Amino acid sequence: MIYGIGTDICDIRRIAEALQRRGDRFAEKVLGPDELQVFRARRARSDTRGIRYLATRFSAKEAFSKAIGLGLHLPMRMPDCQILNEASGKPMLKLSGALAGWWAERGLSGQVTLSDESDYAVSFVVVETTKA
């Protein structure tokens, strides 16, 4: 049964500006440890690729927070909701901290998809529950 659905569109230029203003502190507030590794590796190869990665993850976390109905209120913290990729490239959720416990208590599972084009990143999240 569907628990919640969330979607978000993000202007990549805004993410680039925030990163320029606040430096890596901005990325560290948004990304979890595994995501930070990917971000830094992509940014080392191409600043644009790093910024696009950060923007898609920011968008996905916004969509996720809407799907679970919490917005950006505890236990939802952006670094505790990581959007990683399976070997096939499929995006997946990896939750930690209090958010992981909250998620497990409710018997939730989720699917996430994200994309970017030109100046925008877009994400869609569907959260389901196995509990009646």
Automatic annotation (TrEMBL):
EC supergroup of this enzyme: transferase
Q: Which Gene3D superfamilies match?
A: 4'-phosphopantetheinyl transferase domain
Q: Which Pfam families match?
A: ACPS
Q: Which SUPFAM superfamilies match?
A: 4'-phosphopantetheinyl transferase (SSF56214)
**Keyword Magnesium annotated:** yes
Q: What is its EC number?
A: 2.7.8.7
| Cellular localisation | Cytoplasm
Please classify the protein's predominant subcellular localization into one broad category. Answer: cytoplasm
Binding-site list for Mg(2+)? D8, E62
* Cofactor needs: Mg(2+)
Q: Which family does it belong to?
A: Belongs to the P-Pant transferase superfamily. AcpS family.
Q: What does this protein do?
A: Transfers the 4'-phosphopantetheine moiety from coenzyme A to a Ser of acyl-carrier-protein.
The record's annotation in NCBIfam families points to:
acpS, pantethn_trn
Q: What is this protein called?
A: Holo-[acyl-carrier-protein] synthase
Protein source organism:
Pelomonas candidula
